Each structure stands twice: as C-alpha cells, then as structure tokens.
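A.,

Following up on our hallway conversation. Structure tokens first:
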C-alpha cells in the first residue's frame, strides 16, 4: 500500500510518501514541504498548495491519503490556515477517488513511538529508524507527514480489514 501523508499548514505543508503493509518493513518513497509566502493572499497560497499536491499525486499514485486532523489551538489564525490547507488536500484526493483518513496527532505519535505524548524529536527519531534513513527527515513538517503515512499503513489497513470482516459477516447472515 502506498500512502501519501500530509501535515497540513498554510506556510509549510509537510508531504511524505511511504510504501508498506502490516508486518513488513516500510520504505520511504519521497518527502518534502510545500511552502507558501506569508505575505501572499490566502487564496494564492491555497492554490499553490493544491498545485504542489497535484504534482505529488501524479508522481506517486498513492492508494490512500492520510491527513493530520486539525485540532483546536490557542492561535485561531493558525488553526484557520491549517484547516484551509487540510480542506484543499481532502478535496484534491476526493477528486481522484482516493480514500482520505484523518489521524489525530496523539494517534500518530502512539502508532510511531508507542506514546501519544511523544515530542517531535522522538517522532523524527522513530520515523528515521522505521524507514531505515541515514538521518532524520528535515524539516519537522516532512517527518510528521511521513509519520502520518506510517500510522495509516499500520492502522488504516487494520481498520479496513476489520470493516471488511464485519461486512462479510453481516452479509452472510442476511437472508
């Protein structure tokens, strides 16, 4: 399964692509950051993020897209930009018929490090180890995007298998 992970942001939008299946070693395909200038109009910034994302979708043809779920912060401006970038990502994926999964920061941290309270350095260290990289991905937004993709490979596939099993069980019982 190939997963495109997105750590949404208006100034820096982390992007990472991971290949893997449950129980097998993961592999990093590519990572990077879509950057937009803070002085540009929001609409131009969102358009730039969409264009960058479309290029990644064309280049990597992922099976799914994993996006960090926007959570409430003290800075409403930051939350708005993050939510807007997240919406652009979800719309681009939906346009291509790709499944989109939202994962909370604590869910991603727990999946990658074993602790939902891990700090950014711990997440980056585990991403480096799990993907057998020579150095932690930089900037942190890219490491976070790879962590999202890893989380989805492990949790998303398991959830999909459970859903399929429940559906199969229910259809066998239906007369």
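Then the amino acids I'd put at each of the 175 positions:
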């Amino acid at each position: 399964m190939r997963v495109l992970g997105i750590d949404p942001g208006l100034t820096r939008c982390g992007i990472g692509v991971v290949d893997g299946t449950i129980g097998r070693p993961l592999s990093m395909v590519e990572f990077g950051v879509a950057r937009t200038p803070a002085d540009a109009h929001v609409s131009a910034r969102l358009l730039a993020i969409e264009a960058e994302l479309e290029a990644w979708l064309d280049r990597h043809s992922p099976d799914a897209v994993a996006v960090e779920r926007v959570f409430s912060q003290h800075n409403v401006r930051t939350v708005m930009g993050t939510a807007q970038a997240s919406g652009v990502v979800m719309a681009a994926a939906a346009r291509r018929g790709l499944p989109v999964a939202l994962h909370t920061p604590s869910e991603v941290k727990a999946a990658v490090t074993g602790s939902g309270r891990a700090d950014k350095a711990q997440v980056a260290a585990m991403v480096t180890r799990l993907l057998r990289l020579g150095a932690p991905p930089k900037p942190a937004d890219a490491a976070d995007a790879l962590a999202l993709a890893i989380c989805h490979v492990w949790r998303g596939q398991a959830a999909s298998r459970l859903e399929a099993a429940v559906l199969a069980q229910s259809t066998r019982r239906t007369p």
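The first helix runs from residue 42 to 60. Curious whether your intuition agrees with the design.

B.
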